[in-house]
Design a protein that fits this description.
Blueprint: H1 3-15, H2 18-25, H3 29-43, E1 48-51, E2 54-57, H4 59-87, E3 92-97, H5 99-104, H6 106-116, E4 121-126, H7 129-137, E5 143-147, E6 156-171, E7 180-181, H8 183-186, E8 190-193, H9 199-210, E9 217-221, H10 225-233, E10 239-242, H11 243-251, E11 255-260, E12 265-274, H12 282-295
Parallel strand pairs: 3-4, 3-5, 7-11, 8-9
Antiparallel strand pairs: 1-2, 5-12, 6-10, 6-11, 6-12
Helix pairs in contact: 1-2, 1-3, 1-4, 2-3, 6-12
């Protein structure tokens, strides 16, 4: 495949315009058009089509654009890591994680790793599950951690690490504190929910769908686990929270559990890597060894 033509195609796709791409690249519009046509001929696929006064990607064009983005993100990642080795001599490990592993598991693993391998630079980015997978796919992360039951991406390897208990919680003085009720009854309460893209929010909606009841009434939407639990402790609403995060609030009598008839929730934590990636850095393998030792 002609990578120069592919790079021009990604610019056209980014701008949704041949002329704007040509201006950005400081080459003539006919030159860009010729390269795109040659690429289409080489691949045997139509990538762009006319739409009004502009262009639009075909389904094949959209597929190629997403794959090309990952390819050029890999190029940037390689260049960055080479620069790090040239100027510092140290490896870097980029990690992406959803909130629960990031706040309650990774700090211990990262601290242990740095005690043994102090020269390796570690960077942790915390985001929701959708964003974390994008970070991994686009080479912004070397490995990732998510809590998610299904909807696994076909280009990602998922290594099961452990299950976590999840509890429904309310303010300590709430009338439902310590009670056992139906899921439908609980869904009548105002919920503190996570942002779109959160696997916990997706799980809660799926749970309601399975039990054929309306989804929770959103009383407050927050982006983090700690913020959400603090809102409950302050006296508002209910939420589905990981036990590892909620237990200290329960011990301090700031929140309380609500038990749901015939429902106990456990959710899996996965370590995620890109498929078909055969070689990883020594730091990558050393970090995985520490994790595997800690969960045995």
């Amino acid at each position: 495949m002609n990578l120069h033509a592919l790079r021009l195609f990604t610019k056209v796709a980014e701008h949704n315009s041949v002329s704007k791409a040509a201006q950005t690249l400081m080459i003539s519009q006919p030159a860009v058009t010729i390269q795109i046509r040659n690429l289409e001929k080489e691949l045997g696929l139509t990538l762009i089509e006319s739409k009004g006064r502009g262009i639009a990607l075909t389904p094949n064009g959209t597929f190629l654009y997403k794959q090309a983005q990952r390819l050029f993100d890999l190029e940037i990642d390689i260049e960055y890591k080479i620069e790090q080795l040239k100027y510092t001599g140290n490896e870097e490990l980029q990690i992406a994680s959803t909130h629960v592993p990031s706040h309650f598991l990774l700090p211990k693993w990262l601290a242990h790793f740095k005690q043994i391998y102090p020269a390796t630079n570690l960077h942790l980015k915390t985001a929701n599950s959708q964003q974390v997978i994008e970070e991994l796919l686009h080479y912004k992360a070397d490995l990732a951690f998510i809590v998610k039951e299904d909807g696994h991406h076909p280009d990602i390897n998922y290594q099961f690490l452990m299950n976590l208990d999840y509890w429904f919680i309310v303010p300590y003085s709430h009338p439902l504190a310590g009670q056992t009720i139906s899921l439908a009854e609980l869904m009548e309460q105002p919920f503190v929910t996570r942002e779109d893209g959160s696997s916990t929010k997706e799980y809660l909606n799926a749970l309601c769908k399975v039990h054929k009841i309306p989804p929770p009434k959103v009383g407050l939407q927050l982006d983090g686990i700690n913020e959400s639990i603090h809102a409950i402790a302050a006296g508002f609403g209910t939420m589905l929270a990981p036990s590892i995060a909620a237990s200290s609030f329960i011990q301090q009598q700031q929140v309380a559990r609500v038990f749901i008839k015939d429902i106990d929730i456990q959710r899996p934590i996965y370590l995620c890597t890109r498929k078909n990636e055969q070689h990883h850095s020594p730091s990558f393998h050393n970090f995985l060894h520490i994790i595997n030792e800690s969960i045995l």
